[in-house]
Amino acid sequence: MHSNNSIFNEQEVLKELKHYFPSQAQLKDFVHHNTLHAFQDQKFYDGIRSASKIFGYIVSLQLEDYRALYISKRIRENILKRIIAEKKGVEHLNEWMKKAIGKKYDTSVSPRIGLLRSVWERKYHLNLDSLVHPYLFRILCSYLDQGISIWSFPVGHEGFLASIKEIEKNSFTSFFKGKRARNLLLGGNCKVEDLLKIVVGDESLYKQYLFDQQFAHQGWSGMVSTIEDHPQSLLNQKKISIHDLIVLELLLEIDTLDSQFGQKWLPVGSKLKGRPAGLFDEVPQTELDEVLSIWQDAFEWSYYDQVLAAIQLQGEIDPVPPSHKSFQVVICIDDRERSFRRYLERNVHKTSIG
Fold first, then answer.
1. What is the pTM of this model?
2. Which of 34, 299, 304, 323 is least enclosed, having the fewest CB within 10 Å?
3. Which of 237, 271, 305 finishes a domain?
4. Is the CB of residue 164 less than 8 Å from the CB of residue 254?
């Protein structure tokens, strides 16, 4: 919830989380999504730089890969020089050629995501994800089950968290090892903000902690987000939300920490010597970023020139009349169609397009 004096606005943070999640549909549907869709409001190189520095996404070839392509002539020297001249000016051509071809750079990437939650491992020597995720994913799989399990979750029509409460209340065993997390769940004191106060402490870090937590399993979070928005995407519809997923994961984290340290552990915010970089603070452009953008443009234009030259040459060659074919097959460019496509071409001797 959100009070007038609160720094943390739960609804705004959940909305922002959903914006950055991959749109992970279930595999019964054709799955296609742009992982970088949240950065599409930026110019191309600004967007991929932000995605790389914030989330650790690999957005281009490595510098040494570009240089190897240059040595093998797949990136042409004249095009590389042309790109540098266009971007940096002819007077700086030699300087940037040396940077692109030979200068040493630190190419390691240290993403901002995960820095806050890494304190658990650094200060408590505890890999919280390895202890929480196996339980969390099994519970999610069981709840979202589409027909394999014999028993369904109770009161599923009321939602994921309601089902967890119902099982916890009426079972001889428990999802939790200790009493505190169980009491928080059954006592109704499991608002996201209240749980974050126990786990994080510093309200100004709540948002960053949730991003760290949910992007430790962004595929699962993206799937839950998609089901929340499009429940019809499941044949056997289930009611679930990112809010419910976060609540259960925070409860499991509290329970895991209690089982390891009793209730004497301190929230992660109290263990910080310095604040981590803000997740969405501006990402400055480095010289390496500029060099990589030069290489990428040169790589693309090396292909453009070849393709355009081939098209130009094609007009000068007398076309060969096609042999008669009884049918053609147009197929999506997708690995799942490859075996079907190759079978037709090999055994039926027909042409497939795509």
1. 0.82
2. 323
3. 271
4. no
- The token pair at 164 is 């967890």
Q: How many helices (H) and strands (E) does the chain have?
A: 15, 2
| 229 assigned to some structural domain | yes
Q: How many CA atoms lie within 13 A of 243 on its CB side?
A: 16
Residue 22 contacts residue 221 (beta carbons within 8 Å): no
Amino acid at 36: L
Which residue range is the domain that position 150 belongs to?
A: 10-33+112-271
Tell whether the torsion through CA atoms of 50, 52, 56 and 57 is positive or negative. Answer: positive
Assess contact for 241 and 228: CB atoms under 8 A.
yes
Signed CA dihedral, 138, 143, 149, 150: sign only: positive
Distance CA 185, CA 198 (A): 14
If one counts every other C-beta atom within 10 angstroms of the C-beta of residue 194, the result is 13
Q: Residue range 151-159: average pLDDT?
A: 80
State the total domains in the chain: 2
> What number of residues does the chain have?
354
More confident residue, 156 or 68: 68
